[in-house]
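Priority: medium. Attachment 1 of 2:
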């Protein structure tokens, strides 16, 4: 399997506080990778750097073997990005689903999904609408195309967010704690969709606190703390880790 995403020695600081200190990660096509760890460990910042919402301070990033940024000079140098025009094409590689949905409140569900394919990717409106309606049907929302976000439950809004991310036909989907804003019943709706995507071999990186879900759906789980990957392996390896800190973290969440 080819490497879809490759991160080497990623660093990121805010106000001189090192949030990501040295992150290296490779994700192959069709893999599902869950990232777990305490609040403040850098999980969301890792996703924001990988999806170009934040610039890395150091290290390299590539999609499908194509460089997005690399260190200038020696390996410890600042990351230098490819020109903006070239950078735009990388946005087609990924989709990002936020924990707070981030839907446009003044757009209908259909327009929320169609907007980026038409404006960013130049897909004809009719084709974009057909894709959007097909995705809504797939996610059990075919009757919500003309509704507005405020008329939907949290679980429905998050499913619309997933449809919007899928509309650009990305190579990889990133989820930043997609169920943290939902109650347990609505959480089940969203996890069901992600499970189905995993069955369809969609490449995904999922930041989550849902331990049993991570164990069930992941090919690999990464435990992050203090801006570093402290341990990674298969779900069985992580859940039977000999590291006390990993066991303590998993045990606390599993018990909550």
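Attachment 2 of 2:
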């Amino acid at each position: 399997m080819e490497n879809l995403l490759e991160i080497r020695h990623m660093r990121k600081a805010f106000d001189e506080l090192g949030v990501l200190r040295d992150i290296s990660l490779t994700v192959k096509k069709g893999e599902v990778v869950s990232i777990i760890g305490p609040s403040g460990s850098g999980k969301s910042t890792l996703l924001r750097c990988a999806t170009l919402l934040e610039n890395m301070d150091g290290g390299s990033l590539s999609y499908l073997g194509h460089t997005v940024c690399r260190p200038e000079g020696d390996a410890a140098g600042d990351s230098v990005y490819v020109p903006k025009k070239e950078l735009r094409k990388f946005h087609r590689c990924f989709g990002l689903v936020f924990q707070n949905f981030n839907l446009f409140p003044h757009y209908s569900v259909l327009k929320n999904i169609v907007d980026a394919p038409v404006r960013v990717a130049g897909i004809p409106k009719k084709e974009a609408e057909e894709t959007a309606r097909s995705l809504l049907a797939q996610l059990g929302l075919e009757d919500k195309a003309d509704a507005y976000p405020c008329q939907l439950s949290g679980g429905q809004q998050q499913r619309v967010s997933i449809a919007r991310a899928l509309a650009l036909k990305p190579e990889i989907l990133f989820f930043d704690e997609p169920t943290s804003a939902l109650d347990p019943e609505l959480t089940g709706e969203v996890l069901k969709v992600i499970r189905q995507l995993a069955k369809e071999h969609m490449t995904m990186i999922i930041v989550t606190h849902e331990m049993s879900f991570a164990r069930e759906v992941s090919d690999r789980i990464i435990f992050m703390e203090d801006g570093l990957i402290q341990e990674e392996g298969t779900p069985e390896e992580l859940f039977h880790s000999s590291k006390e800190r990993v066991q303590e973290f998993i045990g606390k969440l599993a018990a909550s």
